[in-house]
Amino acid sequence: MNRRSSLAITLLCTILALGCNDGGLERHDLYGKVTFKGEAVPFGTISFRPDRSKGGTGPAGFARILDGEYSTSSSGKGSVAGPVVVLIEGSAENKPLSPSLFPNYKTNIEVSGDSYEFDFNVPETAPQKVPRSRGKR
C-alpha cells in the first residue's frame, strides 16, 4: 500500500469516527429516584430531551425506571448538558400495554458539570390514566 492510499484510509476512518459520536457533544450519566404518591414508581421510562426553546441542542438521553430508580449508565444513554425537558412514564407492571400510573409527566432541569443526580416526585395531582377496554364494540 502506498502512502497516498494509507493517508486516504486514515482520513476515512477519522471522518467515520467523528460522525458516530453524537456530534461531538459530551453525554452525562444521570441517576436518581422517581416517586408518585409517595411510593417508588415500579416500572417506567424517563427521557431527557434538550430544551430547544431555551437553546438546548443534541441527542436525547433515556433510562428505564425499576423499583423507583433510574440510571442512564446501566439502562440507557446519558444526557447532554444544558436545559433539558424530562418526560416520565410509569406503570405498576412490567408488561407491554400495561396501564400507566399517570399521563406522561413533564418537567425541566438544568444538566451542568456538577449535577448528575436528579430525583423526581410526580405530583399526586397528576391525573391517573384509566385503562381502555379491550373488548369488542
Describe this structure in words.
The chain is built from two helices and eleven strands, in the order αββββββαβββββ. It has a single domain (25-122), classed as Sandwich (Immunoglobulin-like), CATH 2.60.40. The protein has 137 residues and is α+β, with helices and mostly antiparallel strands. The chain has helices at residues 3-19, 72-75; strands at residues 27-28, 31-36, 39-40, 43-50, 61-66, 69-71, 76-77, 79-80, 82-91, 105-111, 120-122. The longest helix has 17 residues, at 3-19. The model is unreliable at 10-22 and 129-137 (pLDDT under 50). The strands form two sheets. Strands 2, 3, 4, 5, 6, 7, 9, 10 and 11 form a nine-stranded mixed sheet that branches. A two-stranded antiparallel sheet has the order 1-8.
Relative strand content: 35-45%
Structural class: alpha+beta
Oligomeric state of the chains? single chain
CATH architecture: Sandwich
The helix content, as a percent range, equals 10-25%
Summarize the structure.
With 137 residues, this protein is of the alpha+beta class.
List keywords for this structure.
37% strand, Immunoglobulin-like, 2 helices, 9-stranded mixed β-sheet, 11 strands, alpha+beta, disordered C terminus, 137 residues, two-stranded antiparallel sheet
What's the layout of helices and strands?
Elements: H1 3-19, E1 27-28, E2 31-36, E3 39-40, E4 43-50, E5 61-66, E6 69-71, H2 72-75, E7 76-77, E8 79-80, E9 82-91, E10 105-111, E11 120-122
